Amino acid sequence: MQGKKEFNKRIYYNIDLDSLVPDDHFLKRLDSLVSFDFVRDLIKEYYSHTGYPGGLKTVVLKDLLANKPEEVVKKAVWGMIPHNTLGRAVYKKLKVYSGSAHPHEAQNPQEYRF
To answer: Which CATH superfamily hosts domain 17-107?
Structure first.
């Protein structure tokens, strides 16, 4: 009969490594002492698309911090503002410079520390 094909269901296994690794094992002790959350931040990927087929570009955060550190702040701000006409108007006014040199000396801007 048409439309009555039987598909194989995929089976997923959920394996809990805590039950498989003994309590006195080195990796279990290392995991409880050291946090590896910083690795996730370094391998975070930023995506952009050219609009053409196959035009997806990815950049790792570590490379972006080395080459264009001001882009990291711009992408973070763009993610926080609303994506509409008002948000785009606010984003156009955002100026981010790496280092202390900038062309706005006449306004006497205040340094912002995190």
So the answer is: Ribosomal protein L13 (3.90.1180.10)
pLDDT by residue for the chain (114 residues), tens only, comes to: 566 666 666 566 666 666 666 666 665 555 566 666 677 777 888 898 999 999 999 998 888 888 888 888 899 899 999 999 999 999 999 888 887 777 776 677 677 787
d(CA 11, CA 8) in angstroms, rounded, equals 9
Locate the domains of the chain by residue range: 17-107
Instruction: Count other C-beta atoms under 10 Å from residue 96's C-beta.
Output: 13
Which residue, among 40, 46, 112, 31, has the nearest Cα to 79 in the 3D structure?
46
